[in-house]
Design a protein that fits this description.
single chain, alpha/beta, Cobalt-precorrin-4 Transmethylase, domain 1, Methyltransferase, Cobalt-precorrin-4 Transmethylase, Domain 2, 2 domains, five-stranded parallel β-sheet, five-stranded mixed β-sheet, 32% helix
C-alpha cells in the first residue's frame, strides 16, 4: 500500500521548513508540487523524482500523486506555507475517497501569516483571522461579507492572495470595505517574498494600504484598534497591561 504525505514547506527558505517536513521529503521517492514550490526544494533533494504541474492544475496534481502511490511508492505533495491553510490537504482527502488503500498524512508547515508576522514584529498576538481575496474558488460577495464581519469584530486580519494581474483592484476594494468600520490610521503591514530572495516588509496605515500595490506573493496584515508600532515593529498587545491593573 502506498503512502502520501501532504507537506507544508514553509514560506520559502529551506531553513523555514520544519525538521519533520525535511525528514519526510528525504524519505519519499517522489515529490509533487506546483512549479514555483518544486523549485524551492529541488536543490535540497536533487536525487528525488519530481512531478510538476502549473497553477490551476491542482486536481491533476493530486491524481498524479495518487497514481504514484498506487505503485507502492512514498509520495510527498508539497504546498507553500502550511498544507492545511489555503493548501492542498483538504483536496487530497476529497480525491482520496477514490483511493481507499492509500494512506494520507498531513505534515504541518509555517504559513505566510506566521512567517510574515515574525518579519513585521508581533501583529497576531491577539484574536485574528485569515481571509483570501482570491475569488477563483470563493464568490466575491462572500469575501465581502467575511471582510465586513472581521472588521466589525475588530479582528486582526491577515489577507492572502491580495492581488494579481486579473485582480489588480481587489486590495483597494477590500480596504474600502474595512474603512467603513476601521479608522484610517489603523496600523497595517505588508510582507512580500517571505524567506525568499527579494524579501521586503513595510508598516503603513490602512489609508496608505488602500493605494499600495501587492501581488500573490504578498501577505497583508490589518491591525485591530489596539495595534501599534513599537520600535519600528507592528505589535498587537494581548492585554497584559489591563490584567496588571486589575491586580
Amino acid at each position: 500500500m502506498g503512502q502520501i504525505y501532504v507537506v507544508g514547506i514553509g514560506p520559502g527558505a529551506y531553513e523555514e521548513m520544519t525538521i519533520r517536513g525535511a525528514n519526510v521529503l528525504s524519505q519519499c521517492d517522489v515529490i509533487a508540487g506546483y512549479t514555483v514550490y518544486v523549485e524551492l526544494v529541488r536543490k535540497h533533494f536533487p536525487e528525488k523524482e519530481f512531478i510538476v504541474t502549473p497553477m490551476r492544475r491542482e486536481e491533476e496534481r493530486c491524481e498524479l500523486a495518487f497514481k504514484e502511490a498506487e505503485k507502492g511508492r512514498r509520495v510527498a505533495l508539497i504546498c507553500s506555507g502550511d498544507a492545511g491553510i489555503y493548501g492542498m490537504a483538504g483536496l487530497m482527502y476529497e480525491i482520496g475517497r477514490k483511493y481507499k488503500d492509500i494512506s494520507i498524512e498531513v505534515v504541518p508547515g509555517v504559513t505566510a501569516a506566521l512567517g510574515g508576522g515574525a518579519l513585521l514584529g508581533a501583529p497576531l498576538v491577539h484574536d485574528c483571522c485569515f481571509i483570501s481575496l482570491s475569488d477563483l474558488l470563493t464568490p466575491w460577495e462572500k469575501i465581502e461579507k467575511r471582510l465586513t464581519a472581521a472588521a466589525q469584530g475588530d479582528f486582526v486580519i491577515c489577507l492572502y492572495n491580495p492581488s494579481s494581474k486579473k485582480r489588480e483592484d481587489y486590495l483597494s476594494r477590500a480596504c474600502d470595505i474595512l474603512l467603513k468600520c476601521k479608522k484610517e490610521d489603523t496600523v497595517c503591514g505588508l510582507a512580500k517574498n517571505i524567506a525568499r530572495e527579494g524579501e521586503i516588509s513595510e508598516i503603513l496605515t490602512l489609508r496608505e494600504l488602500r493605494d499600495k500595490e501587492a501581488d500573490m506573493f504578498t501577505t497583508v496584515f490589518i491591525g485591530n484598534e489596539e495595534t501599534l508600532v513599537i520600535q519600528g515593529k507592528m505589535v498587537t498587545p494581548r492585554g497584559y497591561g489591563r490584567e496588571r491593573n486589575r491586580i
